[in-house]
Amino acid sequence: MKKFPSLFLLVTLATTAVGAQNVARNVTPAEFATMSKAERQAAAQELKAADAASASAFTGTLAVGGTHPYAPETVNISITYDTGTFSGVGDIPAIADNFSFGNNFDTVNGGTIGGGKATVTVTQLTAFMALVDGSSTGTGGAFATIFGPPSTAGIAPSLTSANFAGLQGGTFNMIPIGTTLTGTLEFMAGIWNSTNGSTAGTTPCAVDCVGFDSGTVGGQGFHGMAIEDFGGGNFTPNPSANAMLRASGALVPVELMNFSID
Fold first, then answer.
1. With contact defined as beta carbons under 8 Å apart, do 248 and 79 qualify?
2. Distance between CA 98 and CA 227 in Å, rounded?
3. What is the DSSP string of 205-249?
4. 188 DSSP β-pair partners
């Protein structure tokens, strides 16, 4: 007679274990809400034991570092220094060479481009063509060039240059020229005037000329410049005007370009 309680207890424990497994694997939120604390604990423990029994330890090499799995945030930028009022054309320095007229792009809205911590891709220039092929109203082609930043010796590398047809004189033209800059984000861009300067004195731009504006926007000062188009030498700032040449593109902050765990 004393064996019956023990047998009953064994049957009860077995039933509880099977019930816990079924509850753990198949319980719905509504059923879980009606369970007692002991039943919920038993169900959770059963699942833990099953997972521990079936899991195998990691034996490979865990790689750390590498690139961030998410795409870097891209910030579109547009750099404008002029007010849109045509004041005149630039003067070629007194050096017998071909010159490009434009701007030294070293700030955006008065601050350093990208805070010095980004990669910038220039995708388009917008230029007010005061003259195209010597005409203020005609249509023709002109060379646009993007340079790197000028050195202390007044030399800047030419990064990309192309001729664009169908530019209209006396108005703004979109020029889809682009390049990507890394490191320092300062760059220059200009329109090539195909005549030579005079060795005796300055000569106004007279063939393909970007317009200049004696005003500025946002207190950004003056960024106009002239530079030899072929060799990138004799960088000459214009301290009182901005070329009516605007740049647009994209910034990718370096903080978001790579992510690693040490």
1. yes
2. 8
3. --SSEE-EES--STT----EEEEETTT----EE-TT-EESEEEEE
4. 104, 147
Structure token digits, residue 59: 């034996």
Tokens of 195: 């005549």
For 57, half-sphere exposure in the C-beta direction (CA atoms, 13 angstrom radius) is: 1
Q: How many CA atoms are closer than 13 Å to the CA of 97, on its beta-carbon side?
A: 17
Q: Please, what's the largest Cα pairwise distance for the chain? A: 129
Which pairing describes strands 224-228 and 99-105: parallel, antiparallel, or unpaired? Answer: antiparallel
Q: Which long-range contacts (CB under 8 A, 24 or more apart) does 37-42 make?
A: 42/16
- Cβ atoms of 211 and 229 within 8 Å: the answer is no
The tokens of 240 are what? 């009182």
Q: Are 130 and 170 in contact (CB under 8 A)?
A: yes
Q: What SS3 state is found at 54? A: helix
Which CA distances in Å does 38 have to 42, 156, 209, 226? 6, 77, 86, 83
Amino acid at 142: A
User: 208 with 192: CB under 8 angstroms?
Assistant: yes
Give the pLDDT band (50/70/90) at residue 25: low
Residue 177's closest CA among 165, 160, 192? 160
What is the CB neighbour count within 10 angstroms for residue 203?
A: 16
**Lowest mean pLDDT, pick from 51-60, 178-187, 231-240:** 51-60
User: Could you give the 3-state DSSP secondary structure of residue 137?
Assistant: coil
Q: Give the model's pLDDT for residue 137.
A: 92
